[in-house]
Amino acid sequence: MSTPRISPAAASADDPASPPASASSSADRKARLAVTVFPLLVVAAGALGLAAPSHFTGWAPAVPYLLGVVMFTMGLTLTGDDFRAVAKRPWAVGLGLVAHYVIMPGLGWLIATALGLPPQLAAGVILVGCAPSGTASNVVTYLARGDVALSVSVATVSTLVAPLVTPPLTLLLADRFLDVDAGAMFTDILKTVLVPVVGGALVRMAAGRRVAKVLGVLPSLSALTIAVLVLIVVSGSAARIKDAAALVLLAVVLHNGLGLALGYAAGRAARLGGPSSRAMAFEVGMQNSGLAASLATAHFSPAAALPAAVFSVWHNVSGSVVAAVMSRRAPKPTPRTPD
């Protein structure tokens, strides 16, 4: 899911050219506010959908358009520096991309099988695993004193390749549970993810100064839109939630927790260093659950979207906690003093 985005220009923990202490403190406050308020907003939206589902069940057709709004705002935040950062570190970005699309889909299948999840829920868990990185990952990477530039690069590339990767992975792993129309899923991801992201990036290129004036309101717009998405998804499966909430929560906690751990381990195994390994943890363990919820609603059922709705709340909470632990153990950056 999308939350306020930290620029890749923000220095990593071990970069001696880190920003002045006052700027860093301000960014810290904004990032911590984002990962505190956003989960609370999503929880409130989910509670409303659970308490009064009949008021929102007719909103389901709006889900793809709402996701498109979120992805368009992500595109508006992209700059040429984001794409140049990918070209400068193809090995690290490629490793992050492979780790993300191998670890999370594989974990989704293993967890769904091990827990004996019903077909709808199993397909939903797998679909969450096959989704691209969540854009909130760069915020918690910043809080964890991780490599923000790597985080943004992996999140961006995983989103751009999602039309080519998510449908076949879902077909491979979830087809034993439910029928998967990979072609229709490919088209939907193109329309709701790739086109809006590219469109937003082009608008940023063409009207950068004007877009810069509204960048401050984009996080709030994204957060509110995502809250409405969760509201719709939860209201559509309110009855099922009461029966399967504990099982879904267990699946989500295992999926996210193992993803964070294995992502960090992959970075360490590749000798990327501490900051980059912390970035890898969040790029692997945090997912674009909004996309998963939209695809599950459109191609499976509201019940299949339940794991994505729960994941959207949990991964922000767990990400914030893990980032806090990592930041305490990481070397403190040396503030740059004015000349």
UniProtKB/TrEMBL annotation:
Query: Which residue stretches belong to region Disordered?
Result: 1-25
Q: Where is the composition biased (Low complexity)?
A: 7-25
Membrane-crossing residue ranges in chain numbering: 33-52, 58-79, 91-115, 121-141, 148-169, 189-207, 214-238, 244-267
State one Pfam family annotation: SBF
One cellular-component annotation, GO? membrane
Keywords attached to this Swiss-Prot or TrEMBL record, sorted alphabetically, are: Membrane, Transmembrane, Transmembrane helix
Q: Where in the cell is it found?
A: Membrane
Instruction: Using the UniProt record, give the first listed, main subcellular location.
Output: membrane
- Provide the membrane topology annotation: Multi-pass membrane protein
Question: What is the protein name for this chain?
Answer: Bile acid:sodium symporter family protein
Q: Which organism is it from?
A: Streptomyces klenkii
